[in-house]
Amino acid sequence: MTADPTRIPVLVGIGQSIERDDRVDAIDLAVRAAEAAFLDAPGLRDRIQRVSMVAVSFSPVGLAPASEVADRLGLSSAAREVSTPGGNTPQWLMNRACAEIAAGSLETTLICGAEATRSMRLTDPGSDFLAAAGQDRSGEEGPRDEVVGASVRGMLGQAEIEAGLLRPAETYPIFESALAARLGTDLEGSRARIADFMARGSEVAAKNPFAWFQQVRSAAEIASPEAGNRIIAEPYTKCMNSFANVDQGSALLVTTWAIAREAGLAEQCVFPWSGATNADVAPSERADLGASPAIRAAGRATFEAAGVGLDEIDWIDLYSCFPVAVEVGAAEIGLALDDARGLTQTGGMSFFGGPGNNYTSHGIAAVALRLRESGRFGYVSGNGGVLSKHSLGLYGAEPPPRGFVLAETSEAQQAIQNAALEVAQEAQGEAVVDGGTVVYGRDGAASAAPIIARLSDGRRIVAVASPETLPTLSGRCLVGETVRVSGGHPPVYTVQ
To answer: What is the pTM of this model?
Structure first.
């Protein structure tokens, strides 16, 4: 028996935008994508009740970007809101909208987002998009959109901040080192394993009209640290990093099945079946740096709520900011890296592009377009922070018999919080390395070597290499080794 069609959410309009030539801003790209979504789902423009915009973090916008988009689209009566930062927020917004439709409190909404980082850097070549993301705008005056979304819980702890471990490109490799140690592979072996599944992603991107890099790259090209593909932080080459210097936008139009059928759009509807959200604790508090209890819990809840198994999924898009996010995201739901279905429908953030917080909107769009063509189910994962916040969604080609279900995950979340390790702000003596990396400058010289290590009493520390130790660490993985830690903020280590 099928649920009430007025309470069944459908994704009915899909729009994406990309700019390779002219300079644009994020508002332009979001508006373009929204107009494409309206063309995809004609007759629904005037029924939009709310515009939800994914936070624009990497490129300049005003304090009310959702309002700017709504005004440009002529949606004068629509409510406006913007999300908190995080790559999980597009799926979080989708889950929330679907739950509201299922509850009867919402009928039609537009979820959109964009980044214009390429244009920003063309205008100001010295701009730092990560610095822009961390800018405090609380003191700025002017009208603001309402802010909604999951908290920033778990993204960074005080120990990470003091150690300068602020950039994802330096934190994700630490997780990779822990995973590699568990799998018994060295740095070269890790690069080879990673390059293999990323090469398959580049094949997908080459066929995607909205991908930034539409060229096939071999595993050897991706893994080889040669000119133009230097090591950023061990073991990742430049090709293994999310590519954020893009101008991309997207829009997703969500309504009820009843309204879609009334508008003659029943044949293109994609049905959200279930979703869930969980968050991991701060990196230094995680017992296993190469795992995600939050993805495990949210994944289990998402599949159980829908009554669907992983073997029934036809299309998959895993969040892909860095390779370990894909590896962990796959492992926690029982998916092999070489699964014949593939791990991405966009090509992944290294090749499709990584438009800040908004990538997952493109993942949802790509999976939905696949489902319009063939298959029964699709799965999308979104990740915010440093493998921190996770929102998952399961989509179907047919209406869900149970209606949409937003899974209850509060008990699992409390268990994750309760399992957090204690972190010491200062320490002396011996510590065993649980994860680490070596960071390189553009000149190829090692510039830092942060580690997350465990003291003999079980507490964690985040430490940095001493000046005399740093030059000796290139090409070396310290996981499992004992180092000597001296006091200070942050603690400093030497290799024994």
So the answer is: 0.97
